[in-house]
Amino acid sequence: MPGNTFGASFRITTWGESHGKALGVVVDGVPAGLELSENDIQKDLDRRRPGQSDVSTPRSEYDTVEILSGVFEGLTTGMPVSMLVWNRNADSGAYDPIRNIPRPGHADFCYSEKYGIRDHRGGGRSSGRETIGRVAGGAVARKLLSIAGIDVFAHVIELGNIRSKKLTYEEIRANVVKNHLRCADPKAAEKMLERVNDARLAGDSIGGIVEIIATGVPAGLGEPVFEKLDADIACAMMGIGAVKGVEIGAGFECSRMKGSQMNDPFVVNTEKAIPDNNNAGGIIGGISTGLPIICRIAVKPTPSISKLQRSVDTNTMKEIDIEIHGRHDPTIPPRMVPVAESMMALVLADHMIRTAKIGPDSLVK
Amino acid sequence: MPGNTFGASFRITTWGESHGKALGVVVDGVPAGLELSENDIQKDLDRRRPGQSDVSTPRSEYDTVEILSGVFEGLTTGMPVSMLVWNRNADSGAYDPIRNIPRPGHADFCYSEKYGIRDHRGGGRSSGRETIGRVAGGAVARKLLSIAGIDVFAHVIELGNIRSKKLTYEEIRANVVKNHLRCADPKAAEKMLERVNDARLAGDSIGGIVEIIATGVPAGLGEPVFEKLDADIACAMMGIGAVKGVEIGAGFECSRMKGSQMNDPFVVNTEKAIPDNNNAGGIIGGISTGLPIICRIAVKPTPSISKLQRSVDTNTMKEIDIEIHGRHDPTIPPRMVPVAESMMALVLADHMIRTAKIGPDSLVK
Amino acid sequence: MPGNTFGASFRITTWGESHGKALGVVVDGVPAGLELSENDIQKDLDRRRPGQSDVSTPRSEYDTVEILSGVFEGLTTGMPVSMLVWNRNADSGAYDPIRNIPRPGHADFCYSEKYGIRDHRGGGRSSGRETIGRVAGGAVARKLLSIAGIDVFAHVIELGNIRSKKLTYEEIRANVVKNHLRCADPKAAEKMLERVNDARLAGDSIGGIVEIIATGVPAGLGEPVFEKLDADIACAMMGIGAVKGVEIGAGFECSRMKGSQMNDPFVVNTEKAIPDNNNAGGIIGGISTGLPIICRIAVKPTPSISKLQRSVDTNTMKEIDIEIHGRHDPTIPPRMVPVAESMMALVLADHMIRTAKIGPDSLVK
Amino acid sequence: MPGNTFGASFRITTWGESHGKALGVVVDGVPAGLELSENDIQKDLDRRRPGQSDVSTPRSEYDTVEILSGVFEGLTTGMPVSMLVWNRNADSGAYDPIRNIPRPGHADFCYSEKYGIRDHRGGGRSSGRETIGRVAGGAVARKLLSIAGIDVFAHVIELGNIRSKKLTYEEIRANVVKNHLRCADPKAAEKMLERVNDARLAGDSIGGIVEIIATGVPAGLGEPVFEKLDADIACAMMGIGAVKGVEIGAGFECSRMKGSQMNDPFVVNTEKAIPDNNNAGGIIGGISTGLPIICRIAVKPTPSISKLQRSVDTNTMKEIDIEIHGRHDPTIPPRMVPVAESMMALVLADHMIRTAKIGPDSLVK
Q: Which CATH superfamily groups domain A5-362?
């Protein structure tokens, strides 16, 4: 059970390290007949890429995707879609001084404990660059979902203790692209930006909350006991680096509610029963209700900070104070948006295929 | 991908419905040579059982487990351990009036959407009785973990907006058994009980938060990208009925912290580097650090309430108001304690075996 | 990876030992809405049962199945179908003298090497009784396949060096029930019976070949590289105790053929292209062609024989000669027929569901 | 369940088409600390490569492997090892005339039935070039097995009805490299070569049998019921293109043997019980005995032949006679040798890791 594969019927296997030769993904289970080109993937990779603003790392990574298999004459063939992004601009030497010093809040320590050795350059596989494979795979999932009318989008709803006001889905979709913080409430975004700048000046970092929404999801996705849709989403989200919490619908707030407040009543709508409210976040008993899926994730502050931190030189076994220099995002949530969308899209594509609402073998027969 | 199996190397498959003949579990991957008897299982099933106090349902279920395979002369043999609990005391007729009326907050609606037909009696497989299989399987996991010095325990830290004060692990272990609410802070427990009683009198219900702790977990459990230990825990927890949120360590609170607050520094302790704090909740980069695993789950208020609720008779497609009578827990978190412990134990046993820290084939060679 | 679960989308988990309390199976992934009763299962269990004639063991096992879950008002609900057969008539004492002496040709030695301890009574889980779970699960698969017009049947084509003549599928179906050897060629059956009787009188046993056929299988089942239909069938068949070889279509004979003989040409039939011959055995490139699936398996002679055999007392580490007494089949292939059919049905049901040719969630929506 | 991943604990995911941009494999589950370089892989890819003699296709493919991840400073890191081979020399135009005409004995027809569309160039993913991923992944498995003293080797034992004489393992290892047919019996090899030449001159092809042997395999690999070692080997072998039969140990011959001949007696050897003979082929009850694993596979004649064959133009739905021109092997078994070795190595590496006889996380802690 090596852990680099995600999904059952629609499945990605990712590979690559921050300062290795390349990073990539193999997407398996794509039904034949889907129009797919590198543009479909590049769009999302560009949104994932840092260097777009003051609030993200100024490194000039330019991640160009190549599709190596599984597409013929513009259509998927049902064969695995292998995609690759070459690494460049890697200044590995900068990591030499901390080769044997685990950075607080980073996976360095755990990798050493587990594997005995590790690629310390840029965090190796535990780097944020690992999400290239997730986003490239997620872009295929998204394309597939679009043919079924499913739309997945995310936005930053909280950053450095500033909370976005409540917005409609239309407002979120329209406004999220208008600032680099990917917060759909412009006034909140302004205040968030101040907090980001304060943190950067202090050599520190701040955390936040991202909300992921999927509209157009039909009722009936998810299995009854263990492969519940919400369980799979929780697994997908908690598995993204820096995520420490996941909630669905009313989430942690439900623990302070009464049953009479929390329960979504049913009403008749165009001759069908549907829930009249969405505290459930689109999922009850692990199965989708037909209403939008609502998920929120807690993202911790960037662990790489330039403030002094206590660590241990594992060669000498002496405690030591370190400052982490280099170009680091002072906050992660804005860059988390396309990654979290990708994970949601991957889970939904998987369940759409296993319930045969899409595919499974072909879209063109 | 049918969803009744959980785990990779240590794996349970559960079955059974609330008002069917029986419920049970097949536990596969138990190493040979573990001492195991029905007593080991019954202890946890008894803690799961309702009817023990005012705060849980007064139904007199008596769930006696039978081990049917995989144990020979008091030791496991490496073969699957099949266990079964017969159902009794099922008053199925009480559910006839709501056969075609989905109960708000319950999975009834989603099951009908997905399967076309459903066993409506007592919620069928979506009933809380489904957790019998989880708890029986979890008891085997727990027994296995105990030989490696791992202890899993849980307590109610919030109920109806009352929060337990901060306690040491020793205090939690010692006090959690002292009241039926399974809250280790006696003062908070008293206030919680008032809230529970208020809710019951009002025909309503309340939610809460359960914290699950595992001590003695070695560093190095979990895979780097997708089968991360925290992702697997999130999956396990979110897959329990009524859970709407999961967090690890600082959890959602981390979104309001600075990096300099959140990062756990490393220090030297008995010639080894270890984290000096546990905001991480025992897991960084998806891999255990060697410190205790800390997880909290948000539990929604019991959906079965006797207050009037709006629903739809799906035969006539007319809206209708329903009152749900019968014996129902006014709050779930106290009963969630053994279930959440079981899910944590299952995840840990799985990862202990796949990293070969226990077994995998035999404890006696 | 514990090995008691088979299948992906239609999946069985079996449990139980020869002289334990019971044996059973959990069938997961059965679409809702299938008519299913204990009769459907019992029919196949009765065919599996020994004691029906001179050529099988005279033990009076009577294996009555109970369905414990997953069926409501005569229809499957999409929930796992758990089934159980209680053990009785177990004379465990007879196995005491060989508790520490591995029987040649049996799994005793390997279990001890792997697990350190083993349930020696009647071979424990390595007994032929283990197939009860396979056959009960296979009966559900068969019922499901029947609604898609797929029929699975098997017959003994070789026993003790006597070969059945070539017969049509209709002749096989009609004649296989006419003798206890399950050979559809009555003349060959007569000679086979002589060989069986000779072997029994000599305290010895004989092997044979079983052919399994599935008609009505649509084109398009199977995955292109690793979960090929023939690979899954090979896995299913080689995993039955006593099977030492598996072949599809022309099988080993193809190694002596020319390409011009082996290749099945394509012709037009009712406006569709189809292969005009079936050397491929219904599968090319791992994917079904639409013609019948043809599989043959080599079954070794019963390892339990009363002739003197050399073994080792593992307590004293001294070599010793043993005679295995008791009631044993002098030949296995006739009893293999329902077991091999079950495994074929399980593979086909799995692939029918994953290609969404049946289900996956429900037959009644 | 998309079918491009193989293995549980040691797992490969392959991708790529005959005339696509590249082919490759992601190997997941490689323990950290294994010395690995491109040379280790290239050796086996070179053995797989055609163009080495008269008996294989004269195309000048030159398949150079690049390792893209998972290796740092010469050692594996526990992260996925991604490898890639670029395609070149692809004359796709030659396949235009048969774009809509399924070639007899090829997967063309089945792919069209399943996917609706297909990459017809050189057979697309169903080409023999697909095995590049298997062989590259198998080379990693082999390197890993070598540290545990396990050696996997194969040879052609039958070709065009000529059978190699019985040889010792030492003779096989020494002689298999001495001719391009990879037959370790030089006299048989000479006659086989005549048959190959006859077939080529006639525009036809011939089949054969390959034997795969693994020495040094410890007792105790394999699971008791469904993930038996022999079942996994059968799955691995039958899943190679052109294989129509698999047998273990005495194989199909056992169906003509008596129990007293087939059963391997146990003897005492250096104070341990071991089987004194190997009709079992190293596996009883699905678990390895500690003796060499012996497997044989039936390989059909190359389906691409230049003799006239009947097929159907699926555009016009008219029957048509085709001749397949181009450079094709007149026989496959010699090239099957490294592929079958790879599949055996993959199964053994997987089971060695899941029983923790190697790794699972690291070789260097």
A: Chorismate synthase AroC (3.60.150.10)
